[in-house]
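for the recovery benchmark. tokens below, seq after
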């Protein structure tokens, strides 16, 4: 007779957590699809609604980021106290619905409001998801797990670019938003009724006393974590560069080589999304292996990837053929999203158990406002300035300037590694 009270077998536990990780990765992919479908369609939207690069930068940057980032904090506090599954499912429903509404926009302001709505919904996605994953995977496998989670970025970029380009060619840009948004509503129901939350801290045998610290207490603790602050600064600079390129790479190729969204959507999706997704897992495993011997390799892995990507990104901008541009973009795509998984890992390792969602949201707040918000906005503004000054390649010149920030990030990440092990040990003492 089977003992119904017996604990689940290791195989059962592994299958269960694999399902949760796969489901949350799919949610993250939808998060990215709803963003990237706009990116691949910027040029036809610009022509149809008569917009300039500064307005495109706002739509892809601050309009989304301001709400995404600021609402992430209260959402994270809710997640540290309440049911994380419910938060994720509700958030997914909101951002998917607002993506569909984007297809109804008749002018810049309509689309601006719709993208703000997407930001409101997506604010509740990542903090509770990273918190759940950290309660399922031990520290020595956490960067790998979060690396798998961040493959959602790659799959989402691939899906968003491919869907946007192909649907645009067949039905126009408005239909692409409808088709991108509606499936997320179904996925929200799947999350609500099939995802089970793990017990907080059980994987690390840490005691969860059930009391979440106040915002002030959490911020005071984070401010004393030197490695957290330096890593955050370095990742913010990388995020500015990464998101400026993510948003405007398609536009750069279309303008430079006189091609349309449908021509670049699949190649860019495979490069940024497919190659980037593989890179997130591979580099995440390398990071876990190196960090098991020396935790300094958490930030040093990002620094090494940033240094490797920099010359190839420059050569991408100088390419005189679209084939060569794709070739130079392979390396930046492969290492391009690892900063996100390591940043999420750090936000879980360098704080107490019931600080994790807040720390993730604080990390996300800074990365979003400065990187996701500031990167495209700054690049778009620079492009307009170069255009007004008579440049024949204003967008290319803007992106060249942006690369300087990527170079500056390496210093802060190297310094972060000096304090990481000390700060992780300090966080582990919190129960």
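predicted aa per position
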């Amino acid at each position: 007779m089977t003992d119904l009270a017996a604990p689940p077998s290791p195989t059962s536990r592994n299958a269960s957590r694999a399902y949760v990780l796969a489901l949350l990765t799919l949610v993250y992919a939808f998060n990215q699809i709803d963003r990237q479908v706009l990116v691949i369609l910027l040029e036809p939207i610009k022509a149809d609604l008569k917009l300039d690069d500064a307005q495109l930068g706002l739509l892809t940057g601050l309009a989304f980021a301001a709400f995404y980032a600021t609402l992430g904090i209260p959402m994270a506090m809710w997640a540290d106290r309440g049911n994380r599954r419910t938060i994720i499912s509700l958030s997914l429903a909101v951002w998917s619905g607002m993506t569909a509404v984007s297809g109804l926009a008749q002018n810049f302001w309509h689309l601006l409001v719709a993208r703000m709505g997407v930001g409101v919904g997506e604010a509740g996605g990542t903090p509770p998801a990273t918190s759940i994953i950290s309660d399922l995977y031990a520290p020595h496998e956490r960067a790998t797990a979060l690396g798998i989670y961040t493959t959602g970025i790659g799959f989402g970029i691939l899906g968003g670019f491919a869907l946007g380009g192909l649907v645009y060619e067949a039905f126009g840009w408005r239909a692409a938003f409808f088709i991108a948004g509606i499936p997320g509503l179904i996925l929200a129901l799947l999350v609500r009724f099939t995802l089970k939350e793990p017990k907080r801290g059980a994987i690390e045998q840490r005691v969860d006393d059930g009391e979440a610290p106040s915002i002030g207490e959490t911020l005071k603790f984070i401010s004393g974590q030197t490695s957290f602050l330096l890593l955050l600064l370095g990742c913010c600079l990388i995020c500015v560069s990464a998101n400026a390129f993510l948003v405007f790479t398609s536009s750069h190729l279309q303008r430079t080589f006189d091609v349309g969204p449908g021509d670049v959507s699949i190649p860019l999706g495979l490069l940024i999304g497919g190659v980037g997704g593989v890179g997130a897992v591979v580099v995440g495993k390398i990071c876990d292996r190196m960090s098991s011997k020396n935790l300094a390799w958490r930030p040093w892995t990002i620094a090494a990837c940033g240094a490797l990507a920099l010359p190839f990104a420059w050569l991408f901008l100088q390419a005189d053929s679209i084939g060569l541009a794709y070739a130079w973009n392979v390396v930046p795509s492969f290492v391009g999203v690892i900063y996100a998984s390591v940043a999420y890992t750090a936000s879980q390792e360098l704080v107490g158990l019931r600080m994790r969602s807040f720390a993730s949201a604080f990390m996300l707040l800074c990365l979003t406002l400065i990187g996701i918000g500031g990167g495209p906005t700054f690049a778009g503004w620079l492009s307009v300035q170069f255009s007004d000054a008579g440049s024949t390649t204003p967008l290319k010149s803007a992106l060249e300037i942006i690369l300087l920030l990527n170079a500056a990030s390496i210093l802060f990440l190297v310094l972060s590694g000096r304090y990481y092990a000390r700060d992780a040990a300090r966080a582990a003492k919190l129960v």
